[in-house]
């Protein structure tokens, strides 16, 4: 049970427990009692030094890590870009050479290897290029459509796959480029893979040999080895992580990858650590209760309006678990925020108005 306190409002958050993965005894002992980026670095030291695989050997591993025993339960290749959880897939792949790319001209031609964090950003270096935790088998054509675009919420889709994954302009606050959005079933999976990547490679993400994020608008790195990703991207990943809890598929895949390369994704084993590292709780210490901000409509479905007597310099939105899910710097007395992508529930606003901080809450319908 976690207690969060905001302006005399008490929010009690009960975290659901996830079936425990097969974590070796004592595996995470060195992370006990830590929080924030110190926890992240401790986890990095635990999962570092895994067995490095060759790129060609990955193809033979996917029958151990990515077999569909959850949706159609037919033993076909489970592809997060084409799987349709609630109905039969439009097409299925096997694990043999006949289903692997080669060349492709359209969706359903073949599958190849997808780097959830694009390998172009780290110039195909090892060990990240062959890290099974972040290299998944996916439809070759959909993989190509995703390209190096960051993940995010799509506003207007320019292309949609057979299972509903889509590419289009960003509706995620803080980013105006093209993004790729998987279906809801796999958003948490992808978020936890990217949090793993930020942890496992925290010493490498600032390397001068990697793609410079300042010169590539698709690169979500922020140039630091603590937060690792830009604010807008962290907000997307936190939202997806909190919306889509750890599944049995992820637990089984984590165990299978551990058996092959001998390290684990800590955020599958302990999903609460995501918010302890990247979430940012609010404190009443700096809140000025004399600052008044009108928040309407409340409850809200899509567009939330804020009105104050002085400029609202910064807006941060938190889930009641303390995870920051959205941020912006409007610098205006009248602010309109699109919250349509947020899950239903209670949210907390941390507002900076003319140098003073205050807090409000709202309900997303």
Keywords, separated by commas or semicolons:
six-stranded antiparallel sheet; 8 helices; 2 domains; three-stranded antiparallel sheet; 13 strands; disordered N terminus; globular; Endonuclease; alpha+beta; 365 residues; Immunoglobulin-like
**Strand/helix succession:** EEHHEEHEEEHHHHHEEEEEE
Mean pLDDT over the full residue set: 89
Radius of gyration: 21 Å
| Spatial gap, N to C terminus | 25 Å
Number of domains: 2
Class by alpha and beta content: alpha+beta
Morphology: globular
Proportion of β residues? 15-25%
Low-confidence stretches: 1-20, 281-286
Helix content: 10-25%
What's the number of extended β-strand segments? 13
Number of helices: 8
Biggest pleated sheet? 6 strands, antiparallel
Detail the topology: elements first, then pairings.
Elements: E1 2-6, E2 9-13, H1 36-47, H2 62-65, E3 111-115, E4 135-139, H3 140-146, E5 154-160, E6 166-170, E7 178-181, H4 187-200, H5 231-243, H6 248-261, H7 266-269, H8 272-278, E8 293-296, E9 303-319, E10 324-328, E11 332-338, E12 345-353, E13 356-364
Antiparallel strand pairs: 1-2, 3-4, 5-6, 6-7, 8-9, 9-10, 9-11, 9-12, 12-13
Helix pairs in contact: 1-8, 4-5
């Amino acid at each position: 049970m976690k207690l969060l306190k905001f302006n005399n409002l008490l929010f009690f958050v009960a975290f659901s427990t996830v079936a425990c993965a097969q974590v070796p005894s004592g595996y995470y002992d060195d992370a006990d009692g830590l929080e924030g980026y110190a926890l992240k670095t401790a986890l990095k030291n635990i999962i570092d030094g895994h067995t490095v695989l060759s790129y060609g050997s990955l193809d033979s591993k996917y029958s151990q890590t990515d077999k569909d025993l959850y949706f159609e339960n037919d033993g076909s290749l489970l592809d997060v870009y084409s799987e349709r959880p609630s109905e039969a897939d439009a097409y299925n792949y096997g694990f043999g050479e006949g289903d692997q790319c080669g060349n492709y001209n359209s969706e359903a031609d073949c599958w190849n290897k997808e780097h959830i964090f694009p390998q172009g950003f780290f110039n195909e270096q090892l060990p990240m290029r062959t890290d099974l935790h972040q290299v998944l088998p996916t439809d070759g054509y959909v993989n190509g459509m995703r390209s190096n675009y960051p993940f995010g919420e799509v506003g207007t889709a320019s292309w949609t796959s057979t299972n509903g994954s889509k590419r289009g302009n960003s509706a995620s606050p803080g980013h105006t480029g093209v993004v790729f959005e998987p279906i809801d079933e796999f958003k948490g999976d992808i978020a936890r893979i990217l949090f793993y990547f930020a942890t496992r490679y925290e010493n490498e993400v600032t390397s001068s040999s990697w793609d410079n994020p300042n010169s590539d608008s698709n690169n979500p790195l922020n140039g630091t080895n603590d937060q690792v990703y830009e604010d807008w991207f962290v907000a997307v990943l936190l939202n997806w992580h909190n919306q889509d809890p750890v599944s049995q598929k992820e637990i089984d895949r984590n165990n299978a990858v551990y058996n092959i390369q001998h390290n684990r994704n800590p955020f599958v084993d302990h999903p609460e650590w995501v918010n302890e590292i990247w979430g940012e709780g609010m404190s009443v210490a700096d809140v000025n209760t004399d600052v008044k901000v009108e928040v309407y409509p409340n409850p809200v479905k899509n567009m939330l309006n804020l009105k104050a007597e002085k400029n609202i310099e910064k807006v941060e939105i938190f889930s009641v678990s303390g995870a920051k899910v959205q941020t912006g710097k409007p610098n205006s007395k009248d602010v309109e925020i699109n919250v349509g992508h947020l899950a239903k529930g209670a949210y907390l606003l941390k507002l900076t108005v003319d140098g003073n901080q205050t807090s409000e809450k709202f309900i997303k319908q």
